[in-house]
Automatic annotation (TrEMBL):
Gene source species: Gulo gulo
GO annotation terms (biological process): uroporphyrinogen III biosynthetic process
Gene3D superfamilies for the chain: 3.40.50.10090
Domain of life, per lineage: Eukaryota
The protein's name in its UniProt record: Tetrapyrrole biosynthesis uroporphyrinogen III synthase domain-containing protein
């Protein structure tokens, strides 16, 4: 793509398409996603919902759309939002726009941490895929001490993924925000171990 094509695309977006998209509702989960979407000039709704279930409830409380909702998602996506909307008769069309892959240095980084710091008091997961990509390494490095670790989750989907792997969840953030996570971790770390 040459520079002139990029300029033309940006001009069309800025002077025409952005307004057309802003005439529609743009739903997001979390402030980080809202911030990214806002940077391209779109207004968002639902950022404070915190998770897919609450966002689905928010969408269902709104006027039913005439056209299907567009759901840009990754190759690995939760089914909670699509199922809840379908059950309420709200049509949605999913389109895969990205693929989650593990960080190439995850094993080296975990090895480095464990060799310098030892077994951590807590580990927080921000997504089910983060758990998938790192759990084997964490189990190997922690050995019999894995039961000492307090596992935290950023939200209910990640907590379910931890439980499905046989791990005890010590903390689920009340909302996907740093302060809510810090508060939950502080309480979990102060609680006596079982």
């Amino acid at each position: 793509v040459c520079c002139s094509h990029l300029i033309l695309c940006f001009t069309v977006w800025k002077h025409s398409l952005r307004e057309q998209w802003n005439a529609k509702s743009v739903y997001v989960v979390g402030n980080a996603t809202a911030s990214l979407v806002n940077k391209i000039g779109l207004d968002t709704e639902g950022a404070n919902s915190g998770n897919a279930e609450k966002l689905a409830e928010y969408i269902c409380s709104r006027e039913s759309p005439a056209l299907p909702l567009l759901f840009p998602c990754g190759t690995v996506k939760g089914e909670i939002l699509p199922k809840m909307l379908k059950d309420r008769g709200i049509p949605m069309e999913s389109i895969t726009v990205y693929q989650k892959i593990p960080h190439p240095g995850i094993q080296v980084n975990l090895n480095s941490y464990y060799s310098k710091q030892g077994v951590p008091a807590s580990i927080t997961f921000f997504s089910p895929s983060g758990l998938t990509y790192s759990l084997k390494h964490i189990q190997e490095l922690s050995g019999d001490n894995i039961d000492r670790i307090k596992f935290a989750a950023i939200g209910p989907s990640t907590a379910r993924a931890l439980t499905a792997q046989g791990l005890r969840v010590s903390c689920v953030a009340e909302s996907p925000a740093p302060l809510a996570l810090a508060k939950g971790l502080q309480l979990a770390l102060q609680a006596p171990s079982c």
